[in-house]
Amino acid sequence: MSLTTTITEVAPAAEKSTTTNKDKEPYRYAHLMPFLSKVKMPPLTPFTHVDPGSRALNHPNPRSFLDKAEVIELTPNFASDIRGVNLAALDNDAKDQLALEVARRGVVVFRDQQDFFDRGPEFYTTWGRHFGRLHIHPSSPHPEGYPEIHLVYKDANSKFNSETITSTVWHADFSFELQPPGLTTFFLLSQPKTGGDTLYSSQVLNLKRLSPTFVAFLRTLKAEHTGIGTLRASRGGGFERREPVENIHPVVRRHPVTGEEALYVNKQFTKRIVGLKREESENILNFLYDHIAKAGDNQARIKWSPNSMVLWDNRSAIADYGHLGAVRHGARITPQAERPIPALESLVLDDQ
């Protein structure tokens, strides 16, 4: 499980206007430009999730989809960079293996995925549904007709909060949902020649660095995660298509497939630790946020190249991005997973 941060830039032809002249070619991904629907959506309802990686556990060779690939481990226990696999051509069995690989490595980058890009939004959503029910962002734009595809688009004039010394805030996507995301797919339709890297942090390794006594205490805790006033699009005056929610999750969660335990707090969405006084909660959370931010040996930095895709397990990774003063256009497919499973079996989440 990991946290991420990205900076991207669209090529000059990818301006908000997709018209062309004799000096400009049509933007290849004009059909994926942002559209903001004003249709209100009902609250999300619970559903039963079976992680596809579990089906690969009994496979005689659960990494056979990588037999002809070049695999570089970015760190010994976290993140891989892979060439030689066409994600668009994977069958369901190989997708299950892929889910298991992402669960075990936390973050996996796949290069040379032009075939996937060219398949279009209908293919993107079909791909995502293999890994879970697709989440629809409550306030951000999407390609017209495809609300399940979350778009990241900022032009050179977009403004970020200048009141802090950094624009990055480590986060796990939509941790405030009752059933937050699992395996997540993100790709840049354009990126700058330099910069725009994505930084991931392993919440599995972050937990392992702590003392056994402190981990035992953290396993007894649960935290409230909130979507009220915490989403960037909402803070910027965006239209909220679905009412924001708050939910209680364990501070330490267990992965349903690998059984690994991971921290599950993040600075953007975690509001408080339930049952503690405000000062107690703030001190513990701020310590954990500081640990996550400073633990460079638990992080992997992904450098983008054209036609690259990153898949990560949102259960154990957190992310954010800074701003380059340039256009940024990316697409994310975000399937939901199970309600976070407490590492401590006796922890009762619904009893606040």
TrEMBL record:
InterPro entries: AtsK-like (IPR051323), TauD-like_sf (IPR042098), TauD/TfdA-like (IPR003819). One of its GO terms (cellular component) is cytoplasm. The keyword Iron applies. Coiled coil: none annotated. Keywords: Dioxygenase, Iron, Metal-binding, Oxidoreductase. Residues 72-316 form the TauD/TfdA-like domain. It holds the Pfam family TauD. It comes from the Eukaryota. Belongs to the TfdA dioxygenase family. This is TauD-domain-containing protein. It comes from Collybia nuda.
